[in-house]
């Protein structure tokens, strides 16, 4: 964990903070002194949140968990209110949770399309709106949206996912305009390929199609680690980035320029 205490005594919400990219974000943010409020979507995911909390506490940090499917606005409002009541403040929000159910263009159903928009775009909007009300009262806060470089590059079987993330990028820059007068900063991280379950499975499918193992190109590491995203998130949540808002920051091992 980070030795820095740049987020000492702050409360940071991390959606999907129990596994995948979210686990790296939770770990680094907690290591910087914040109390991390991990949001998980369904009861079966609680085990991951609890494991993350245990890891954080063993390292001397603080964390708690809350059940909330961010695809439903009513759950968002009540969960944010509970977090504020339990922990007394909300200083940061990391909209990390997202879904990507790969499907070919002609096979994307209305249900699948709307679920991606609900979780990947509407969820971050309503979470940010609820959290920003508390930040506005304090005159300070930071919101970080986890997006993807694929929003600029496209990708196979990801029309619904990439459309939602493109919307998230637009939400980031527009929201930054709206709330900057209240001391609230909003930025997004454009994530490249990270070694999570989704990307591990995607690479396995590619290897099966190609009939040979995938080999990273020379130079910069080909796949990121969840803590790589955690380190970038820490910067955007901390006072070190107080002059940064409305930015789309690529943390991708060079994927955007390849």
Uncertain residue ranges: none
CATH superfamily: NAD(P)-binding Rossmann-like Domain
Text of the CATH class: Alpha Beta
Mean pLDDT: 93
Strand % is 15-25%
| Alpha-beta classification | alpha/beta
Q: How many β-strand runs?
A: 7
Write out the strand line-up for the largest beta sheet, numbering strands in chain order: 3-2-1-4-5-6-7
Characterize the quaternary organization of these chains.
single chain
Using the alpha-carbon principal axes, give the shape. Answer: globular
Spatial separation of the terminal alpha carbons: 31 Å
Sheet with the most strands? 7 strands, parallel
How many distinct domains?
1
Which fold does the CATH topology refer to?
Rossmann fold
**CATH architect. name:** 3-Layer(aba) Sandwich
Q: Write the H/E string, N to C.
A: EHEHEHEHEHHEHHE
Q: How many H/I helical runs?
A: 8
Helix fraction, binned, reads: 40-55%
Which value, in Å, is the CA radius of gyration? 18 Å
